[in-house]
Specification:
- By secondary structure, this protein is of the alpha/beta class.
- About 40% of the residues lie in helices and about 10% in strands.
- It is built from 27 helices and 20 strands.
- The strands form 6 sheets. The chain has a 6-stranded parallel beta sheet with strand order 4-6-7-8-9-10.
- Helix 24 links the parallel strand 18 and strand 19.
- Helix 1 runs antiparallel to helix 2, helix 7 packs across helix 8 and helix 17 packs antiparallel against helix 18.
- About 50% of the residues are buried.
- The structure holds methionine and zinc ion (ZN).
- The site of methionine has 13 residues, from loops.
Length: about 800
């Protein structure tokens, strides 16, 4: 089996015929999560953590070899204690000055320094966190300024390579590439206005080269430098700047010939087309380029001609979603590439389009799923098989005809399966008119809401969830196992709701929440209660650090389920998903309790969504189900309803040309979900995890009465955008960073509020944390919320004094 039909000229060691760009790194049973969290809590030692890391790393290498990645350099470096951007940053030593000196006496950044950057300490906020391209993974944002010093500060990547090698496998170390690392960085606090981190490229490159040299010396034949920034239109990075940076960076990194102190370089460009960067990338001296031809387009004939002498690694198998590959379609793409390769003298290899760390490990772990549904799926392990099959196809097309036919048959059966297309759902979306997407004027709504709610200035609220205690999670586990029945579970949840309501009353909040104890996850909970979805048991994927989510599978047409829910066995609650919990909370207090729903875009973004129809159609189906739920909440007397859309920014296409269309359908789906609400019902939305400046028009177009936005971790930057835009409705920029256990002081929150009041009219402002509190403990949450309410009271007094 050999894909090197036209061996590239400049490659001392050929690139393997089949590979993946990355693999899940948290462990099949989330072993890394457990090991890291035990270390953080102080219940295990650094030595225990390192031992766990080693065993996870070696298990991955063994598994990938078993699955067929046996050629040298076919297995990528897949380990990270927290985040790949942080790994690369720490290796290069470019850490923010605000942390003081984290280097040890030997000039190294150890594990403690690494975790301090990720999680903060008593004095310093952690590095900001934001979405990695259009995925639900979050990376830590480097802060680079003129003062940043780069020096080789960690050789973990070399040690990881050596560990695998000592155990018999030559892997392909992975680093975030220099252009992407700087393009994703923000200017440090001390940097002059307009400073561009990319201006430090020339200072960074020698450290990359030094690290590549160490990898070569350790025996690495190939390294992978990931440059997804090249498939995106990033703010502050023009196409010309991007090409120039690519040219400069890779001229420096390939200055040394392969074999004379550097490994061969695979430049990988996942998540879309290289587009106008194709020529710049093809002109570099790297030995191989991985392009995404699943989500991205095949390069044109003229572009392909530029790859002469290289290996083109074709990402034909989707690394980002879970559907079984259409092998016949992939084979066609490979045929085109093979023909062009023969003509222009480049080799072709097969890969996934992105790292597979966006998908779970193994479909075979999900025997509880319907066999039909299971046959439509490919998780990380199955994708390795698909890649191997397609590499075999390149070498000998006839050898895998059976596999190709089988994939074609399964995909055809999926289109016909019951539940995939339901006429009653399609009639409803087909009959929508413009009126279904609009509420009356904001002014009229605001007046009606003021009358019903009569809130003080700077109203306080939380984002929805309260800490998920081990009792709550334990109760859910016992319900699943059948150790308690629905009535017992319901009683336990009610106890928790009462505790949460009482706590908010005691703290003095104005708009309360029920705390969401009944929700394992804000998307999965809805998926479990809607038709068209299924959930997995072991399908965990990393969201950030040790945090994992278990995306549901949205495979069919969506509607609320007919018939009573399993809980609240009373037929009058037929189909309602959230009403009984919310009305129970409302029965305990005179303050308004928010109904909490997850919006259509977020339900799509955080599920594995069907790929057989436009996302807009699926979003409208979900929106109508939520619209029905909102009508039921209103009928039950709920006055404030929040529809969370934390993922609105996440699905934004990476290329500007595609963004307007996305924003149009995504905003419409939110409006479709919420526009049935009465004027007097206050509709909230919540956004987090991203910088929102770029989509502020779309946020405005959501037409929510109140929007809460994550802001504490980026130190209130969003209020500048709101001010510049003239945002006119209610807004709560977060004042408490819930991603870290740190308790913000009253003074600190007062400062943030003062900043907010300076940019946004006080009558529009709300006071709230950045996000839900489910991952926090009660003690720190109580202390933080107490400071939040105290700071609000002080800010109100200051307003009156003015
Ligand atoms: C990631 S956004 C979370 C919103 C949800 N209502 C919560 O409070 O957990
Ligand atoms: Zn949030």
């Amino acid at each position: 089996m050999n894909a090197q039909h036209t061996p590239a000229q400049n490659q001392p060691v050929p690139f393997p015929s089949a590979t993946v760009l990355g693999y899940p790194r948290i462990g099949r049973r989330r072993e890394l999560k457990k090991a890291v969290e035990a270390f953080w809590s102080g219940s295990s030692s650094e030595a225990a953590l390192l031992a766990a890391a080693e065993s996870i790393q070696l298990a991955t290498v063994r598994r990938l070899a078993e699955l067929g990645l046996t050629a040298p350099s076919a297995i990528p470096g897949t380990f990270s204690f927290y985040d790949q951007v942080l790994d690369t940053l720490v290796a290069l030593g470019g850490i923010p000055a605000r942390f003081g000196n984290l280097h040890d006496a030997g000039g190294r950044l150890g594990l403690d320094a690494y975790f301090t950057l990720a999680r903060g300490n008593a004095e310093q906020q952690p590095l900001e966190m934001t979405k990695w391209f259009d995925t639900n993974y979050h990376y830590l944002v480097p802060e680079i300024g003129p003062e940043t010093r780069f020096s080789l500060s960690s050789e973990r990547v070399v040690e990881e390579f050596s560990l695998a090698k000592a155990n018999g496998t030559v892997t392909r170390p992975y680093l975030v590439g220099p252009v992407t690392l700087l393009a994703l960085s923000k200017a440090s606090d001390g940097a002059p206005a307009g400073f561009a981190p990319l201006s430090r490229l020339d200072d960074l490159l020698p450290v990359y080269s030094e690290l590549l040299g160490k990898l070569a010396a350790a025996g690495a034949a190939w390294v992978q430098l990931d440059e997804p920034a090249l498939v995106a239109d990033l703010d502050g990075l023009s196409p010309h700047e991007a090409s120039t940076a690519v040219e400069r960076a890779y001229a420096a990194l390939t200055a040394t010939p392969v074999g004379e102190g550097r490994p061969a370089i695979l430049l990988s460009a996942p998540y879309g087309s290289l587009g106008e960067q194709t020529a710049a990338v093809a002109a570099t001296g790297v030995e191989a380029v991985a392009i995404d031809v699943f989500k991205g387009a095949l390069p044109s004939a003229a572009e392909l001609a530029l790859f002469s002498g290289k290996t083109l690694v074709a990402g034909v198998v989707d690394g980002h979603n879970i559907w079984r590959n259409d092998l016949a379609a992939s084979a066609q793409k490979l045929d085109a590439l093979r023909t062009a390769g023969a003509e222009h003298g480049f080799a072709v290899a097969v890969a996934t389009s992105t790292s597979t760390f966006h998908v779970p490990h193994d479909v075979d772990e999900e025997q509880q799923l319907d066999a039909g549904l299971r046959s439509w799926l490919a998780f990380a392990d199955q994708k390795v098989g698909e890649v191997a099959t397609l590499a075999a196809y390149l070498a000998d097309p006839a050898s895998v005809q059976d596999e190709i036919d089988e994939a074609t048959r399964v995909i055809a059966s999926r289109a016909q399966a019951p539940g995939v297309r339901r006429p009653e759902v399609r009639q409803r979306t087909g009959a929508l008119t413009d009126a279904d997407f609009s509420r009356s004027d904001f002014a009229a709504r605001a007046a009606a809401q003021e009358e019903v709610l009569a809130l003080p200035p700077l109203p306080t609220t939380t984002i929805g969830s309260f800490p998920q205690t081990s009792e709550v999670r334990g109760a859910r586990a016992r319900l699943t196992k059948g150790a308690i029945d629905a009535a017992e579970y319901e009683a336990l949840m009610k106890d928790e709701i009462k505790r949460v309501v009482d706590l908010q009353e005691e703290l003095g909040f104005d708009v309360l929440v029920h705390g969401e104890p009944e929700r394992n996850d804000m998307v999965q909970y809805f998926a479990e209660n809607l038709d068209g979805f299924d959930v997995t048991v072991h399908g965990w994927v990393q969201s950030y650090g040790s945090r994992c989510t278990r995306p549901s599978i949205l495979w069919g047409d969506v509607s609320r389920q007919a018939g009573p829910s399993i809980l609240w066995g009373d037929a009058s609650s037929a189909a309602a998903i959230t009403v009984p919990w919310t009305t129970y909370a409302q029965s305990l207090t005179d303050k308004p309790v928010k109904g909490m729903l997850t919006g259509p875009v977020t339900i799509l973004a955080w599920s594995f969504v069907r790929d057989d129809q436009p996302l807009a159609e699926t979003a409208n189906q979900v929106a109508l189900a939520l619209r029905d739920e909102i009508a039921d909440l209103e009928a039950a007397g709920i006055k404030v309803i929040q529809v969370d859309e934390p993922a609105l920014r996440e699905l934004l296409p990476l290329r500007r040309a595609d963004q307007a269309d996305y924003l149009d359908w995504s905003v419409k789906s939110f409006r479709l979900a919420t526009a049935g609400a009465a004027d007097s019902t206050q509709v909230h939305t919540h956004l987090c995890y991203s910088e929102f400046g770029a989509i502020i028009d779309a946020i405005d177009a959501l037409d929510a009465d109140v929007t809460s936005i994550e802001a504490a971790r980026s130190r209130m930057e969003v209020v500048n955008d709101l001010e510049a835009h003239g945002f006119g409705r209610g807004v709560g920029p977060g004042v408490y960073d819930i991603h870290s256990p740190r308790v913000p002081s009253q003074e600190e929150i007062e400062d943030l509020l003062a900043t907010a009041v300076a940019h946004v009219p006080a009558r529009q402002l709300w006071v709230n944390p950045d996000c839900g509190l489910k991952t926090r403990g009660y003690a720190e949450t109580e202390a933080s919320l107490r400071n939040l309410v105290r700071a609000t009271r002080a800010a109100r007094a200051a307003l009156v004094a003015v």
